[in-house]
């Protein structure tokens, strides 16, 4: 793994234009500084970004039956999480939430993707096929609850609010940069 910058993310996104149609947001259920090769981008506790690829079209193993043409972002957090009211001893930090929403905005702008639930999903949303694409049997919070990454962003948030919060905050970042996503 090596550390990457906004410029690296933008360069790789521009290189992948027309080849990516989905962005999936995960938490790793690990420690703040524990990165994984399953994701194109890992965001550690202080908001730093790491990767082991220079190609966003590389197929990574991050979202069941949804990896081709997709970017997986892993937020390194949620160690010991058990539900909406317990995001573990290492819940998402403000630095991570700021960085992941900035990255969503950058990717949507540079890839030319709308920031909507058909293109940008949490793992919880993808697990329950919330984009209308039934790539698999549901396995998220509305069904078997095998995956519920970012069903909420903060402990105690309204269930199923995480994706809307992440996309809405990404839209805010895009507007600050003078781009609509």
Structural description of this entry:
The chain has helices at residues 6-15, 94-111, 123-127, 162-176; strands spanning 2-4, 22-27, 41-43, 49-51, 70-75, 120-122. It has 181 residues and is of the alpha/beta class. The protein has a six-stranded mixed β-sheet. Strand 3 and strand 4 (49-51) form a beta hairpin.
Q: TL;DR?
A:
Helix content is 27%, strand content 13%. It has 181 residues and is of the alpha/beta class. The chain has a six-stranded mixed beta sheet with strand order 1-4-3-5-2-6.
Give, in spatial order, the strands making up the sheet with the most strands. Answer: 1-4-3-5-2-6
- Uncertain regions: pLDDT < 50 for 5+ in a row? none
Shape: globular
Number of contiguous helices: 4
**Strand portion, in percent?**
5-15%
N-to-C span: 30 Å
| Average pLDDT level | 96
List keywords for this structure.
single chain, 181 residues, alpha/beta, six-stranded mixed sheet, 4 helices
List the SSEs and their pairings:
Elements: E1 2-4, H1 6-15, E2 22-27, E3 41-43, E4 49-51, E5 70-75, H2 94-111, E6 120-122, H3 123-127, H4 162-176
Parallel strand pairs: 2-5, 2-6, 3-5
Antiparallel strand pairs: 1-4, 3-4
Helix pairs in contact: 1-2, 2-4
